[in-house]
Amino acid sequence: MSKTMTETPRPKYGILAVLIIGAFIAFLNNTLLNIALPSIMADLKIETATVQWLTTGFMLVNGILIPTTAFLIEKYTVRRLFLMAMGLFTLGTVVAGVADVFQVLLSGRMLQASGSAIMMPLLMNVMLVSFPIEKRGAAMGVFGLILMAAPAIGPTLSGWIIENYDWRMLFHFVTPIAITVFLLGFFLLKDRKEKVNIRLDFTSLLLSSAGFGGILFGFSSAGNKGWDSPQVYLTIGIGFVSLVTFIVRQSKLERPMLNFTIFNYPMFALSSSISMVLNMAMFSAMLLLPIYVQTIRGISPIDAGLMMLPGALVMAFMSPITGRLFDKFGGRILAITGLSITVVTTYLFSTLSMDTTYNSIMILHAVRMFGISMVMMPVSTNGLNQLPARFYPHGTAMNNTLNQVAGAIGTALLVTIMSNRTESVASDLMSSSAGTQTDPAALATMQEQVAMQAMLEGINYAFFIATFIAGLALFLSFFIKRAGFEGKTDDQGVVKEQKSGKLVTN
């Protein structure tokens, strides 16, 4: 960030307002799409393992581009980066809105992702340098309240649009708003920045893209290809080797693209681990629940959106409250409480049936969102609080990158588990029912019932696995300690000691 901004005693609320509006639009677009997935599957005649690329492809681009944001934030002004991000997001929205085949729709989503990849780390960095540690929880809470309004509005609005219009209207609806936000940024953002003479290491960029991109692509392909496909295990292998080489190279550079020495700060390392694990578990409901309520239960898109509204409202309402609680009590008690709720509710989602009532699903989802609201922002903020200010761009970039990787792995893993379980159960049910029906109409009805029952079993099993993933995050949360940067560093910015004790250094 600029020297001027870091020395300003009062937060620059004008810049924050424009950035938050931009992030809100990007976040709203994602929540609009979740309810639309079954409609897109039916219209474009694609399977669950294919439509999940609208989520994992978005994450793939984010995983490739986010590691560069630390460099971009250090080199360029907030205005320049915001206009670049919003411009790419707007272009992607236009492309997705005119898509008539899945490949064009996916291309539009990836363009959106290239803008979103810059937007969120940029906003988080501005938030961190704008508020002191003792006020950061409350500031992040208000920020979360605004962003959480998107999932409150998104599903219901999406359901109404899909019920009355084509799913492409979701993108047409966002386009004029995105253009307006771009123009607001163009005219209102006026920040200046001293010229910074740093260059992007293209070898690091190549290794980062191959590393994060290979891992993300490999896991995302598993749903379609299976884990024994060369496309899956070779790309994961190439990604892993590239990522290790990337990390080794960063440790030798005077100005690394992504500074991995921030993991010498234990609370940052722990918070990143908890966030990654929780992201893997969290995507189970985001992806599987709309499929269950619409495909299996036949609930209309608008009713599916209304069903998720209370959960989103709870999350939005709790955001400023958890921010203030974090300032007062720290992140440990919030994380333990929130993750305990998340584990229990995720398990209860693994017991869905053909007769589970609408109100039961709505209440369970709301309680689960209540639990998650107590974890995400407090845990992330606690980890970032331990970093010195010069590491904020690297901390926010690292968190966003790892969360994208974890989200893509979690999505691919749970979709694959669901698909494999569905196929296995369907095969068993068809074998046990073989020869019981000879009438073609009755046979078709039986096959449809078998397919629905098998998909239900697959979704339940995926939620069951997600319960154990959330349980791992709960276990890690017991090691959280209240963080604040109090240490000494050497010339390279590596932490040497803290009041709480010595730390191992590279």
TrEMBL record:
Location(s) in or outside the cell: Cell membrane
InterPro entries: EmrB-like, MFS, MFS_dom, MFS_trans_sf
One GO CC annotation: plasma membrane
Pfam families per the UniProt record, alphabetical: MFS_1 (PF07690)
Stored Gene3D superfamilies: MFS general substrate transporter like domains, Multidrug resistance protein D
Superkingdom of origin: Bacteria
Coiled-coil residues: none
Record key words, sorted: Cell membrane, Membrane, Transmembrane, Transmembrane helix, Transport
Domain Major facilitator superfamily (MFS) profile residues, every copy: 15-485
Record keyword Ribonucleoprotein present: no
Residues that span the membrane, as ranges: 12-33, 53-73, 80-99, 111-131, 138-157, 169-188, 200-219, 231-248, 268-293, 299-317, 329-349, 361-380, 401-419, 461-480
Molecular function terms, GO-annotated: transmembrane transporter activity
Keyword field contains Phosphoprotein: no
Membrane topology: Multi-pass membrane protein
Family membership: Belongs to the major facilitator superfamily. EmrB family.
Xref: PANTHER family: MAJOR FACILITATOR SUPERFAMILY MULTIDRUG TRANSPORTER MFSC
Name under which the protein is recorded: MFS transporter
